[in-house]
Write a structure and sequence with these properties.
The protein is an alpha/beta fold. The chain has two domains: 200 residues, Rossmann fold; 171 residues, Glycogen Phosphorylase B (Rossmann fold). Helices cover 36% and strands 18% of the residues. It contains 14 helices and 14 strands. α10 links the parallel β12 and β13.
Length: 390
C-alpha cells in the first residue's frame, strides 16, 4: 500500500498506558493522520485479533488490537513488555496481511516479536538508549541485561533507519555497548517533540487563578510517571530541606504511576501533607497551566532518554533543577536557565533550587523560544527527512 505506514505501539492511542511511548504515538497520529495503520491494544470494546476501522479523535484508522487490557497503574506480576511480545508474536501474520512496506516501531519487544517477517522498509525509534533491563522494575531484570543487548543489537542491524531520542554522548555510549555492530550513520539523533501551541509561557497569576492556587506561595513542580526511576524520594528529601527556608511553599507532582501509594506513605511519614500535592494524570492543557503556575521545575531522574517533560517545562520559561541524565546538557545551561546536579546529592539539589530565584526572566524566555525546534508541527517533515517511504 503506497506511502502507508504500519505503526506498532501496544497502547490504546488515547490514555493508556501513560508515558513517553504513548505521547509520541499520539504525536504520530497528529502528524500523519490515517496515513498510519495502527497496531495497539483495546481498553474498550474494540475486537482483538482482526483489522477493523476505529475512530480516534474524529479520524478513521485501520486498527488491529493484539490484546484487551483493563486500565490500571499497578505493576502486574508479569511484565507488560513480555505480554506484549507474545501478543504481537501471536498475531504477526494477520498484522502484516495489509501488505504495508513501511513499518515504524519504537519498542524492543515488538522488534523481537516480528523477527523473521520480511519487512522492506523498517524504521525504529529508540526513546532511550539505556538497556531497559538494567533498571527494570522487576528485580530479576538485571540478570537478563546482557542477553537482551545481544539480541537487541542483532535485530537493530536489520533496521534501515534508527531514530535515537537521546543526547550525542548517550548515543556514542550506545554504539560502543553494541561493540560498534551498528553503522553510526544510520543511528540518527532524534529529539522528542512538544506541542508549542500548548507549552509556551503565559501569566503565572492567571494560571494560578484558574487552578485555584494561592498566588503568594512558592510553587515547585515535577512531571512524569510516579516511579522510583524518576527519583521521587530524592526530590522529596530535597524539598524537605527547601521547606525549612520556605515553610509555606508547595511541591506538586504532575502525573500518575505505580509508586503513588508509596509516595503518599512517604508524605504522611514526613508530615508534609499540607505542602505536597499529587495532581494525578492531566491533559496537556492542564499540565501547561501547572507549569506556568510554577516558580521552579525539578527533575530527579536516574535514567531518561530525551526528556520531553523537561522540554515542556523549558518551553513554559521555567528555571530548571535536574540530575545529569541524557539530554540535560543539551537543554539546560548551568547558571543560565537552571542547574544540572551531577549526583543525587540532596544538599546540592536544594541549594540549586534556591539559586533559581536569581535567574533573569529574560534568559528563560530566550530558552523558551529555542524550544520551537522541538515543535510537534515539525515531526512529519523530520521523520521523512531521514526515512524515505516506499
Amino acid at each position: 500500500m503506497m506511502n502507508k505506514i504500519l505503526f506498532i505501539e501496544i497502547c490504546n492511542y488515547d490514555d493508556f498506558p501513560i508515558g513517553g511511548y504513548l505521547s509520541f504515538a499520539k504525536q504520530m497520529l497528529t502528524a500523519f493522520g490515517n496515513q498510519l495503520s495502527l497496531v495497539g491494544m483495546s481498553t474498550d470494546e474494540t475486537p482483538v485479533g482482526k483489522w477493523v476501522k476505529k475512530d480516534i479523535n474524529g479520524i478513521s484508522y485501520d486498527y488491529f488490537s493484539v490484546r484487551k487490557v483493563k486500565k490500571s497503574s499497578k505493576k502486574s506480576w508479569i511484565p507488560a513488555r513480555l505480554i506484549s511480545y507474545f501478543a504481537v508474536r501471536k498475531y504477526k501474520k494477520q498484522i502484516f496481511s495489509l501488505g504495508i512496506d513501511n513499518v515504524f516501531i519504537q519498542t524492543p519487544e515488538v522488534l523481537f516479536a516480528i523477527k523473521g517477517c520480511k519487512i522492506k522498509n523498517p524504521c525504529t525509534r529508540i526513546p532511550g538508549v539505556e538497556n531497559p533491563l538494567s533498571f527494570s522494575r522487576y528485580w530479576y531484570g538485571k540478570y537478563f541485561a546482557k542477553i537482551f543487548d545481544f539480541f537487541f543489537f542483532k535485530e537493530l542491524e536489520k533496521i534501515e533507519v534508527i531514530l535515537a531520542s537521546a543526547d550525542k554522548n548517550a548515543i556514542n555510549r550506545f554504539l560502543k555497548r553494541g561493540k560498534n555492530i551498528l553503522n553510526e550513520e544510520k543511528v540518527i539523533q532524534f529529539p522528542t517533540r512538544i506541542n508549542r501551541d500548548i507549552f509556551s509561557p503565559s501569566s503565572k497569576i492567571n494560571a494560578r487563578k484558574k487552578l485555584k492556587i494561592d498566588t503568594s506561595k512558592i510553587i515547585i513542580v515535577t512531571t512524569g510517571r510516579l516511579s522510583t526511576l524518576k527519583g521521587w524520594e530524592f526530590m522529596l528529601n530535597a524539598y524537605i530541606e527547601f521547606k525549612k527556608q520556605f515553610p509555606e511553599s508547595l511541591f506538586i507532582f504532575l502525573g500518575d504511576g505505580e509508586d503513588r501509594l508509596k509516595i503518599e506513605d512517604f508524605i504522611k511519614a514526613n508530615n508534609i501533607n499540607e505542602n505536597v500535592m499529587l495532581a494525578g494524570r492531566l491533559s496537556h492543557y492542564d499540565l501547561s497551566l501547572y507549569l506556568n503556575a510554577a516558580d521552579i521545575y525539578v527533575m530527579g531522574s536516574y535514567v531518561e532518554g530525551w526528556a520531553t517533560s523537561l522540554v515542556e517545562a523549558i518551553a513554559c520559561a521555567k528555571p530548571i533543577v535536574c540530575t545529569n541524565f541524557s539530554s540535560a546538557d543539551e537543554l539546560v545551561n548551568n547558571g543560565y536557565n537552571g542547574f544540572i546536579i551531577e549526583s543525587h546529592n540532596v544538599s546540592l539539589f536544594t541549594d540549586s533550587m534556591i539559586k533559581c530565584f536569581d535567574i533573569p526572566k529574560e534568559n528563560l524566555l530566550l530558552k523558551s523560544n529555542e524550544m520551537q525546534k522541538y515543535a510537534s508541527s515539525n515531526l512529519k517533515n523530520s521523520i521523512l527527512k531521514n526515512w524515505k517511504l516506499l
